Amino acid sequence: MHALAAESVCRIQSFQPQNLSNIAWAFARLADAHMPLLASIASEFSRKMSAFDPQGIANTAWALAKLNFRDTTFMHAISAGALSKMRQFEPQSLANIAWAWATLGLRDNPLRAAISSQSLRRLVEFRPLPLTNLVWSYATLSVHDGPLLDALAAASLRLIFEYNPQQVANTSWSFAKLGCEDR
Fold this sequence. Notes:
The protein is 70% helix and 0% strand. By secondary structure, the protein is mostly helical. The longest helix is centred in the N-terminal third of the chain and has 14 residues, at 35-48.
């Protein structure tokens, strides 16, 4: 993988947004934090941010957070890209962006507010995994967004029979950490 990473760094300017997102995802899945490659991806993302679709933005954020890559310029670019296209974000992409910020322990109030608003608009489309990851993200950052949490709790009840054991455990932990109780 190091040879692929090194070659990618050399050619990074020729990568299209999908290529950048895919290579970031691949290295994250392998837990290979090749820093020159990650820095190159972050830099190129910042240059090409407007060409990324919401899934590409979210997947790139997820991948670099998974590798614990912290770069202020990159995170600002991700936030700006996500905010500019938030109305197009689907549940999985919303959850991936929220998860990335929570994993890195970052707070971005405008981004969080936009994620909350878009999540409420698309709540009926949420499946167990993005729903679990979204509530986990808010709990991890201790964000108490009453309207969103109430809606996520109702959606969780609607989908509870589709949850796997990990999703039940993570959702329970999240609502407990946030102090949510049955009403």
